[in-house]
């Protein structure tokens, strides 16, 4: 997915989240169709998008008659995601901001959050992987040096 600046000025966090959610949903549907065209089967046919704004989730999941919102000015084409959610092609689930992996890619993290972010990504220090291996580190280093010499 391509990241770019939003070309719209929003008046609230919820509106910004709704526009971002709409854009992500469009890109996810495109990728889903592309994978289907390439005969790549996904584990689940529906797309799940994580969102840390409960009001935005309410906007796309609740019945229109129950909604009380100040976002009447939001373009109707941005509400198409409600239709996608109602048909089941897309689901939106709440995830607390602290657990939002994408934030680590878009915002600066304080040093104490960095190890947690790496863990969320599933990254571990190479020393941990090597420690699990039965071969001692020196033996691996020697093999690498021999490989480099043979390539020269």
Q: Separation of termini?
A: 39 Å
Percent strand:
5-15%
User: In one word, what is the shape?
Assistant: elongated
Roughly how many Å is the radius of gyration?
22 Å
Biggest β-sheet: count, sense, barrel?
2 strands, parallel
Rounded mean pLDDT is 81
**Structural class label:** mainly alpha
Secondary-structure element sequence?
Answer: HEHHEHHHH
Number of helices: 7
Quaternary assembly: single chain
Low-confidence stretches: none
Helicity, in percent?
Answer: 40-55%
Q: Got a strand count?
A: 2
Spatial strand order of the main sheet? 1-2
For the structure shown, list the relevant keywords.
152 residues; mainly alpha
Written description of the protein model:
With 152 residues, the chain is mainly α. The protein has a domain at 13-96. It contains 7 helices and 2 strands, in the order αβααβαααα. Strands 1-2 form a two-stranded parallel sheet. α1 packs across α2. The relative contact order is 0.11.
Task: Give a short synopsis of this structure.
With 152 residues, the chain is mainly α. Helices cover 49% and strands 7% of the residues.
SSE arrangement:
Blueprint: H1 13-37, E1 47-51, H2 54-61, H3 80-87, E2 90-94, H4 103-106, H5 114-121, H6 126-132, H7 137-151
Parallel strand pairs: 1-2
Helix pairs in contact: 1-2
